[in-house]
Hints:
single chain, 132 residues, mainly beta, four-stranded antiparallel sheet, 1 helix, 45% strand
Amino acid sequence: QVxxxxxxxxxxxAGGSLRLSCAASEYIYSSYxxxxxxxxxxxxxxxxxxxxxxxxxxxxxxxVKGRFTLSPDNAKNTLYLQMNSLKPEDTAMYYxxxxxxxxxxxxxxxxANLGPxxxxxxxxxxxxxVSS
Length: 132
């Protein structure tokens, strides 16, 4: 079972930037779907962005398109999430997730409705707080 460790969260003012990192415990860059979810207090965990590491196909939630960018670093087994133009509504606990299952991989880079239950590996989460 792959293990994931996130880092890079923090507190910023609206309009600022943060970069989150997700380090995987083993080489998974041939056939895994990796991505980020977030969960704000009192809300359900929601998908933010994901990438199929086999061919680089990506998916971004409408709420973050144009502001967030995924960047995989194959040499470091690490996935980065660059977050720019942050808004107070981006405040949440951010979780890295990964899964190599056939259904998840097939829907990874498109608009498939992949929820938290579809992903088998999770990190511990990192807090992002954006103040107005």
